[in-house]
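dumping this here so i dont lose it
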């Protein structure tokens, strides 16, 4: 009799375990009751370069997360990266160190693949200075140190900080050409017009013959699909009375003639210096040449009001930065260039052109590059069954506290991903903007459960929902799991 009872009990236990394993296997194929979100990953063939200038290292650096939101691969400094105005080595070094050690900037550095740059006058050491500056070798050395340029790089052994780099490959390759407009520049001359700071040095030069020869070589027969040419001072504008290439008209004409002769694919000029932003354009034979000025990361000329016959955008007095979105497609490389507000990431001016520099449909290109800017804000409600916990549920017995975080949204998301990746039997199923969806498999009997996270960037909170796919009661498994996730997150 006892043997019979034990056999029945054993059979029931085996049946229960078998049923549990069957349900566990079935749970993997059950359609999850999770949010349906659009794919916010960058489109294939997209490359983004961000740039800016005029940054006072002694002012708040809390704007870097705004730039990071746009997910640039590359950052370009266009000069006045710090404000030192000194020939004292220790002081200039201290200002560069202050900027480099700012926590927000350090976090931004970790988010981009590469940083390149040039100086302008305030980090060169002499306001509106040129080749006469006696400490220019020291300025070159400390700038390259700030940018972490390798010791064996060619720019380390030459006079001047002009450099070139190629980012991307094939049909999406962009050559970045950075000019040194200080080291070899001839003297500025007194003004001849009322209200102007300087006049024209008719035969003066900016680049010096060695840099001119290098530039011609970089442009001639270049295989790159686009060419970004960075100048610390403006190239195209001619009417304002401050520093610009037009103070040296022979040099300006020489540059435009060189671009006309070499005809590099999709050329775009970048500049800083002015504490304002604008887009300028001139025609060179059958092509357009555009210049995007983005100046004023920490301060700007809010009352800016000056003529520029070449301007094709609003004149922007807000603090700003620039973005170049290059998108490779069947019709060649296209460029969406944007000037954005440093305070809220608002687009203040934009430009959309194709590989022939002619305008393309800006709205259509923008829709591809920015498929959805809205952030999700609400997870689904938990079911009535007890196998779910959530920070956003209206059911008191399933309600949990959201996870607070410090630092940027991007840093918190990477921290959470590291915490979950350190846990066994977890798989990232979906990532879109501020949303993450993971599956967790339980120990011994591998039930598949869904865990979702939503980041509230304004409140600096991480909301979550952990729910079983099958069954009714989870015996507290979802609650225990999320306690472990929260603990692992805070221990990172």
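and the seq i came up w/
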């Amino acid at each position: 009799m006892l043997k019979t009872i034990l056999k029945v009990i054993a059979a029931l236990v085996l049946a229960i375990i078998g049923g549990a394993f069957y349900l566990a296997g079935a749970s993997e194929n059950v359609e999850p009751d999770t949010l349906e979100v659009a794919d916010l990953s960058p489109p294939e063939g997209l490359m983004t370069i961000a740039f800016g200038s005029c940054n006072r290292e002694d002012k708040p650096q809390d704007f870097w997360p705004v730039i990071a939101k746009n997910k640039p691969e590359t950052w370009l400094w266009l000069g006045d990266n710090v404000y030192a105005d000194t020939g004292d080595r220790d002081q200039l070094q201290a200002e560069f160190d202050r900027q480099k050690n700012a926590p927000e900037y350090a976090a931004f550095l970790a988010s981009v693949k590469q940083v390149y740059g040039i100086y302008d006058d305030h980090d060169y050491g002499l306001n509106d200075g040129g080749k006469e500056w006696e400490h220019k070798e020291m300025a070159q050395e400390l700038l390259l140190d700030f940018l972490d340029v390798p010791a064996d790089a060619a720019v380390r052994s030459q006079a001047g900080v002009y450099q070139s780099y190629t980012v991307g490959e094939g049909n999406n390759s962009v050559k970045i050409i950075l000019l040194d407009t200080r080291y070899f520049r001839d003297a500025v001359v007194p003004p001849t017009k009322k209200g102007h700071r300087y006049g024209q040095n008719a035969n003066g030069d900016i680049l010096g013959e060695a840099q001119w020869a290098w530039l011609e070589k970089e442009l001639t027969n270049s295989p790159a699909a686009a060419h970004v040419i960075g100048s610390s001072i403006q190239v195209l504008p001619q009417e304002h009375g401050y520093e610009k290439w037009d103070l040296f008209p022979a040099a300006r004409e020489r540059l435009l003639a060189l671009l006309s002769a070499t005809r590099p694919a999709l050329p775009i000029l970048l500049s800083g210096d002015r504490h304002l932003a604008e887009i300028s354009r001139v025609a060179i034979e059958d092509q357009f040449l555009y210049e995007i000025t983005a100046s004023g990361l920490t301060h700007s000329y809010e009352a800016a009001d000056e003529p520029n016959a070449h301007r094709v955008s609003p004149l922007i007095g807000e603090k700003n930065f620039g973005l170049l979105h290059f998108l490779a497609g069947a019709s060649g490389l296209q460029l969406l260039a944007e000037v954005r507000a440093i305070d809220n990431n608002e687009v203040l001016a934009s430009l959309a052109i194709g590989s022939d520099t002619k305008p393309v449909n800006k709205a259509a290109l923008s829709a591809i590059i920015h498929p959805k800017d809205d952030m999700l804000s609400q997870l689904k409600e938990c079911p009535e069954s007890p196998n779910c916990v959530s920070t956003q549920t209206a059911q008191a017995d399933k309600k949990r506290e959201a996870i607070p975080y410090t630092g940027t949204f991007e840093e918190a998301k990477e921290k959470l991903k590291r915490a979950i990746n350190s846990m066994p039997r977890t798989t990232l199923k979906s990532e879109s903007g501020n949303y993450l969806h993971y599956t967790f498999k339980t120990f011994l009997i591998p039930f598949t459960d869904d865990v979702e996270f939503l980041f509230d960037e304004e409140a600096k909170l991480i909301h979550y929902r952990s729910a079983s796919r099958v069954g009714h009661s989870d015996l507290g498994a979802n609650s225990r799991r999320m306690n472990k996730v929260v603990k692992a997150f805070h221990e990172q």
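The radius of gyration is 29 Å.
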